[in-house]
Amino acid sequence: MAALKNTRSLKTLSVLRPNYGSQVTIRRNLNLQEYHSKDLLRKHQVTVQDFRILDDSLNPKALSGFRANEYVVKAQILAGGRGKGHFDNGFKGGVHLTKNPNEIVDLAKNMIGHKLITKQTPKDGIKVDKVMVAESVTIKRETYLSILMERSYNGAALVASPAGGMDIEAVAEETPHLLKTVPIDIYEGVTDKIANEVAEFLEFKGALKKKCADEIKKLWDLFLKVDATQLEINPLVETDDGRVVAVDAKINFDDNAQFRQKDIFALDDVSETDPREREAASYNLVYIDMDGSIGCMVNGAGLAMATMDLINLNGGRPANFLDLGGGVGESQVSAALKILESDPKVKTVFVNVFAAFFRNCQLCNGCQRYRGGVQEKSS
Ligand code: ADP
Ligand code: MG
């Protein structure tokens, strides 16, 4: 099946399922910026470094009273691979270390307002609006830990690797024996036994093993409490002063839990979302932009995916994935057509909906014109 966007979360799942690119997720699960995720971690007693945030005002007051031996300056975007990324202004790296507090604002200036391009962003990159300034830690070792809802286990799983850091996708592909996956019983949770085994696999020794096991259990508690679908710590580090610290954090949430996680969903940063996706979401439609020329209007995710496959198999390229869902009214169909027609890539529109669907629609003669076939775009 056609692959949709290469978002950070899909990339992460590819660690567990390298063929994930052939599958499609149509839900837009809430995805928080690193600094919001770290706030949640901190509230749940997971060990993270202290940090401050600089925004486009670059006001140094945001850093007043913040002292560390060394600072790490990190661009905040909803994609990973920042350390090895580069900016559209030529500046290299979305993660920088400095011991000089006077250098922080200059580093941030090179990031804020510019697009950061990483392995996980669209090819033009994502504009950086905020920068995290954190106290640096001296890293002895980087490991990888994530907890996610895994369809093939019908439940949660813990994924761990002693070879964490910036190249975890390569570890999954080239040295899969360095990746351990442990299914977790949702009722039993992460037991002491599991936490210790994973800490051992991550090569934490002596007193550090217990510290790591404790962090893993706290992360599990957080995963459950916030209705996460994925919680990824990469790297989970061992520091030179004998601590286990979550240095990077990525959390995705189950959209079905929005009603009981209102505070978290209020943090949703939609500035990185395609405006057409936002417009569609306001009409309760699922719209995802793709790079072809055939606009698709379909009802039902299964039919939408089959339609995209059909188009691909016949040499076409879908311009989008648009699922009207069930029980839509005229205003939604009208909004859907407007979204499709506003996309300059769209040369034709393929309407593939259940015939009964349009029976009572008084929209315009467009329904008749578009019904069940590929038609030339009218405007
Ligand atoms: P990304 O995964 O987007 O590249 P990370 O936050 O994981 O971003 O940072 C990339 C790398 O930068 C880490 O693997 C680590 O080696 C280093 N790094 C990040 N934060 C710190 C920190 N606070 N102290 C020291 N090194 C850090
Ligand atoms: Mg990372």
Using brief descriptors, characterize the structure shown:
single chain, 11 helices, alpha+beta, 379 residues, binds magnesium ion, binds adenosine-5'-diphosphate
Please give a structural write-up.
It is a single chain. The protein is of the alpha+beta class. It is built from eleven helices and 19 strands. The protein has helices at residues 8-16, 34-43, 104-111, 168-174, 192-201, 207-225, 262-265, 275-282, 301-313, 330-341, 366-370; strands spanning 30-31, 51-54, 71-76, 86-87, 95-98, 115-117, 126-127, 130-135, 139-150, 155-161, 180-184, 228-239, 244-246, 249-253, 286-289, 294-298, 320-323, 348-352, 374-376. Strands 1, 9, 10, 11, 12, 13 and 14 form a seven-stranded antiparallel β-sheet that branches. A four-stranded antiparallel β-sheet has the order 2-8-3-5, covered by helices on one side. Strands 4-6-7 form a three-stranded antiparallel β-sheet, with no helix packed on it. Helix 1 runs parallel beside helix 4 and helix 5 crosses helix 6 (207-225). The longest helix has 19 residues, at 207-225. 36% of the residues are buried. Mean pLDDT is 86; it is low at 1-15, 17-27 and 362-379. The protein binds adenosine-5'-diphosphate and magnesium ion. Magnesium ion is lined by residues 80, 234, 248.
